[in-house]
Amino acid sequence: MIRIKWRTIIVTTILIVIFGIVMLRIFSLKPFANNIKNIRQDISKEQIINWIKVQGKNERYYYEGLSYELVNLDNDPELEVVAKIVGGVHLGQFFIFDKRQDERYHLITEQDWKIESWNLSNPIANHVEVGNKKIFEIVTRTGGTGIDIYKVYLWYIEQGKFIEAWQGILKDRSSFRDDYLFKIGNYQFNDENDRIYAWLSSYKYQSDGVTLKEKFGTNTMIYKFDGTHFVLDTETGFTKTN
Prior knowledge:
Elements: H1 2-28, E1 32-33, E2 36-37, H2 45-55, E3 66-71, E4 80-86, E5 92-99, E6 105-111, E7 115-119, E8 136-144, E9 147-158, E10 161-176, E11 179-190, E12 195-206, E13 212-225, E14 230-235
Antiparallel strand pairs: 1-2, 2-3, 3-4, 4-5, 5-6, 7-8, 8-9, 9-10, 10-11, 11-12, 12-13, 13-14
């Protein structure tokens, strides 16, 4: 009787483990995860290239640098196509295609942004206080000779239109003669009062980028949502601290 009892326990345990593994595999293969559709058999890269050729504003693009995601950016059931082209350190494009009633995908925005990072799986805001808008973050890199700037954009889709809700500087580096100018900042969205708290510090260094010549101070800013954009509410101006 004891052997039979132990065999029953062992068999039951094995069955539970197998069931758990099977369920894990099933849920891991779900086509929708965190707002992004991972299975892309519906739309091919070649289709997106053709859309860009027909609807894009430029004659030529660096299609070798094209990547894309199928994402639910708004509150309708249709997925949007978000695409980017990375063409160089400061060169790139950003596209969003929206499916319309004619069952075709239409280009609703094209930006000359070199995308450093995007977070399409988790909008930073999506609740009543911001009108149930799914607000997403994108970090871009731009610049030129002696200039290198990282910026953050917050944006959303509403009624088929792309709306830029806010932008801020994360890092700004520039060289002028013997001076190296440097700005660094960040932001935080507070979902308790739907405000953006941002800061930006500014410095001047010698050309080595290490020896500090002057500290201009830090500007702190608070932005509130006006129904469409985050607008400046208060700011301190560049305040020097010891």
